[in-house]
Structures are given as C-alpha cells and as structure tokens.
TrEMBL record:
Natural source organism: Terrapene triunguis
Keywords, comma-separated and alphabetical: Cytoplasmic vesicle, Electron transport, Heme, Iron, Membrane, Metal-binding, Translocase, Transmembrane, Transmembrane helix, Transport
Example GO molecular function: transmembrane monodehydroascorbate reductase activity
Membrane-traversing stretches: 12-33, 53-74, 86-107, 127-149, 161-180, 200-220
Name of encoding gene: CYB561
Organism taxonomic ancestry: Eukaryota, Metazoa, Chordata, Craniata, Vertebrata
Record domain Cytochrome b561: where: 20-221
Protein name according to UniProt: Transmembrane ascorbate-dependent reductase CYB561
Record function comment: Transmembrane reductase that uses ascorbate as an electron donor in the cytoplasm and transfers electrons across membranes to reduce monodehydro-L-ascorbate radical in the lumen of secretory vesicles. It is therefore involved the regeneration and homeostasis within secretory vesicles of ascorbate which in turn provides reducing equivalents needed to support the activity of intravesicular enzymes.
Subcellular location: Cytoplasmic vesicle, Secretory vesicle, Chromaffin granule membrane
C-alpha cells in the first residue's frame, strides 16, 4: 500500500513477525521473573537474593532490549535516518545500563559470599559479550552519531558494525543458555533428572530464547524488509559519488 508520497507502508508479514518477536521477548522476561520469584525466593539487592537480579537483568538487557534495538530500522521505516539512529543508540544504551546492573549484582554477590570469579565458560563468554557490546556501542556512537566521521569512513565501517551486531545477540543468547544450565546444576542438581517443574521451566526458557533469536535473525535477513532510503538520502548518496575524496555529506549513512 502507498501512503500517497510513494513511501510504501510496512511490508506484509513484517508486522506479524514483529508481534511474535515482542510476544516472545516479553514471555522470556516473564519466565525469568517467574523462575526467580517462584523457585529462587524472589529478587532483592541485599541477601542471597541479590544473585537473582543477575539473570533477570541480563535477559532484559542483553536479549530483549538488544534484540529490539536491532529492529529499529525495520520498524521506523518512514522516519528520518537520524531519528532511527538515535533511537537505535538509545535502546542499546538502555540495554547496556540494565546489563551493567546485572553484572554488578553477580560480582557483588560473589564478593560477599567469598566465591571465586570468572572460572566458568559462562562467565568467560559473558564478560566477552558484555565488553564487546560496550565497545560496539562506543564505535557505533563515534562513527554514526558523533559528527565528524566522513561518509566514506561510515560506509567502510558499516558492514563490520552490522556483522558484530548480529554476532553479539547470538553470543548473548548462547551465554544465557550456559547460565541457565549452570544455575540449574547449582540449585537442583539432585532432582534435575526427575523432570521437576523448575527444570522444565528453565529448559523451556532456554528454547524460547533461541526462538526469539531466530525470529529477530529472520526479520533482519529478509532483504525486502530492509528500510528503503528516503528520497533525500538517495540524493545525498548520489551527490557523494560525484564528490572528490574526503568530502562529507553530514546527515546521511
Ligand atoms: C548475556 C547474558 C549474561 C551475561 C553477559 C552474564 C555474565 C556473567 C558473568 C561475567 C559472570 C561471572 C561473575 C563472577 O565471576 O563473579 C556470571 C555468573 C553467573 N551467571 Fe551469568 N550472565 C548472563 C546471563 C545469565 C543467565 C540468563 C543466567 C541464569 C539464568 C546466568 C547465571 C549465572 C550464574 C549461575 C553465575 C555464577 C557462576 C559463574 O560464575 O559462572 N547468567 N554471569
């Protein structure tokens, strides 16, 4: 359907996949909350319950918000590129902030309990995912939002930014799966093989995290769902091709 200014509305199918992705995202958050609330005693900053802040914040920040930030360019198709970029950057910043609370919670909990740090595959993947995510945000901000990077520099960096964006969501989901497995082994090792409800809930949570990642990946890789450039962005990129090296049309890319 056209909006009268030759801008196509949201492509058929995209809205459905978007709705499914949001439903899955909210479900994994609710299930993590239910797991911590129902079986792990609840959530608090003090006492042993401080650990429970960790899974919840990591699922909200590193999975749900990170995933949603990747979808911004597919959803906000008719807004200016700059508005979409600002929203994309803000959502990632919010995700990082919530994830930081989750990381502080687990380190602080380990310190108070006198537990060792960074001994597991989960913690190694986790610290890599979190640090690389922070670096990715800094690089994205410097190249795409901070005025000064030239158009050609932005164009050369963009494929790496896109690749690492998808890689980091995959790594975050894989890290969550390792964390789920580890928490189950710590908390219900003796009864896990008897199909206890907590084990089943956590295993289903793991499966839904994978499905969430798949739906986001599918939306991102459908070529016809990519954001078409606005007329003025097209004009700018055409202009750029005629410019000599080093010139920088400021508001595109
Ligand atoms: C992308 C998401 C996640 C990241 C970046 C992450 C990161 C980390 C890090 C860096 C540690 C080490 C803390 C220390 O050594 O003091 C840790 C510990 C832990 N995390 Fe996560 N985590 C994530 C998600 C989860 C989830 C979803 C769960 C469980 C449902 C979980 C369960 C655990 C457990 C049980 C520990 C303590 C054992 C250990 O150090 O491996 N994590 N996490």
């Amino acid at each position: 359907m056209e909006d009268g200014l030759t801008r196509p509305a949201s492509p058929a199918g995209l809205s459905w996949y978007m709705a499914v992705s949001q439903l899955l995202g909210l479900t994994v958050i609710a299930m993590t909350g239910a797991w911590m609330g129902q079986y792990r005693g609840g959530i608090a900053w003090e006492s042993v319950l401080q650990f429970n802040v960790h899974p919840l914040c990591m699922v909200i920040g590193m999975v749900f918000l990170q995933g949603d930030a990747l979808l911004v360019y597919r959803v906000f198709r008719n807004e200016t590129k700059r508005s979409a970029k600002i929203l994309h950057g803000l959502l990632h910043a919010f995700a990082l902030l919530i994830a930081l609370v989750g990381v502080i919670a687990v380190f602080d909990y380990h310190r108070k309990k006198g537990f060792a740090d960074m001994y597991s595959l989960h913690s190694w993947c986790g610290i890599a995912a979190f640090s690389l995510y922070f670096i990715q945000w800094l690089m994205g901000f410097s190249f795409f939002l901070f005025p000064g990077a030239s158009f050609s520099l932005r164009s050369r960096y963009k494929p790496q930014h896109v690749f690492f964006g998808v890689f980091l969501l995959v790594l975050s989901i894989a890290t969550c799966l390792l964390g789920i497995k580890e928490l189950l082994l710590f908390s219900i090792q003796a009864t896990y093989s008897s199909f206890v409800p907590e084990g089943i809930l956590a295993n289903v949570l793991g499966l839904l995290l994978i499905v969430f990642g798949l739906v986001i990946g599918y939306i991102l890789t459908r070529d016809e769902w990519k954001r078409p450039p606005l007329a003025e962005e097209l004009a700018l990129s055409m202009d750029f091709k005629t410019l000599t090296k080093g010139e920088s049309p400021s508001s595109s890319q």
